[in-house]
Automatic annotation (TrEMBL):
Gene3D superfamilies: P-loop containing nucleotide triphosphate hydrolases. This is Dephospho-CoA kinase. It comes from Gilliamella apis. One of its GO terms (molecular function) is dephospho-CoA kinase activity. It comes from the Bacteria. It is found in: Cytoplasm. Its EC number is 2.7.1.24. GO terms for cellular component: cytoplasm. Belongs to the CoaE family. Its main location: cytoplasm. Keywords: ATP-binding, Coenzyme A biosynthesis, Cytoplasm, Kinase, Nucleotide-binding, Transferase. Pathway: Cofactor biosynthesis; coenzyme A biosynthesis; CoA from (R)-pantothenate: step 5/5. The gene is coaE. The lineage of its organism: Bacteria, Pseudomonadati, Pseudomonadota, Gammaproteobacteria, Orbales. InterPro entries: Depp_CoAkinase, P-loop_NTPase. It catalyses: 3'-dephospho-CoA + ATP = ADP + CoA + H(+).
Length: 204
């Protein structure tokens, strides 16, 4: 079985950028956000439950989930966010484990935004946490999602703090916007994880 490296960080900390750099080295990527989009596709069980809960107004004209509207709701209402998490996380976890079980590469990167919040770190062999300055996070989030600063701050504040997240880290990758530095860190981690994989497999 592949050595599992769980990659996590705050929203807009650069998880996709870092995952893509690992992918360029031939590492399989299993992304919880990609799976989350898949499980709420048109006709899915999860989308049916979301519509029952929020009404048809949560859909776009083409029948797909209106993510912008849902985001506004859940980041302004803790109860609704908890309801959605309780619905989606077991479904996402089941699909994730199915994808992980198929892997044969020495190691995989498992991208999990809510790794610490949902106590999923125990399912990984190694935890890699992204350290990004909050000011840069805020700037990226506003620019990426075209949202107000107040909503962006609420989204960041809804997650565990960076210090709490770093307490679970086996490895830390600094993403301060310097791509050259980021690539160097990933090259070093790639070699480390290949080595760790050999050690793990020698005991199995």
């Amino acid at each position: 079985m592949s050595y599992i490296v769980a990659l996590s960080g705050g929203i807009a900390s650069g998880k996709s950028t870092i995952a893509n750099l690992f992918a360029q080295l031939g590492t399989p990527i299993i992304d919880a956000d990609v799976i989350a989009r898949k499980v709420v596709a048109t006709g899915s069980f999860a989308l049916t439950q979301i519509v029952k809960h929020f009404s048809l107004e949560i859909l776009l004209e083409n029948g797909e989930l209106d993510r912008s509207q849902l985001r506004e709701i859940i980041f302004n209402n803790d109860h609704e966010r908890l309801w959605l998490n309780n619905l989606l996380h077991p479904i996402i976890a089941q699909e994730t484990q199915k994808q992980i079980a198929k892997q044969t590469a020495p190691y995989i990167i498992w991208v999990v935004p809510l790794l610490i919040e949902n106590n999923l770190h125990q399912l990984a062999d190694r935890v890699l946490i992204i350290d990004t300055p909050e000011a840069l996070q805020l700037e990226r989030l506003i620019d990426r999602d075209k949202i107000s600063e107040s909503l962006a701050k609420r989204m960041i504040d809804s997650q565990v703090s960076l210090s709490d997240r770093l307490a679970f880290a086996d490895d830390i990758i600094v993403n301060d916007g310097n791509l050259v530095s980021l690539k160097m860190q990933i090259d070093d981690l790639h070699e480390k994880y290949l080595h760790n994989s050999k050690i793990k497999n020698s005991y199995e």
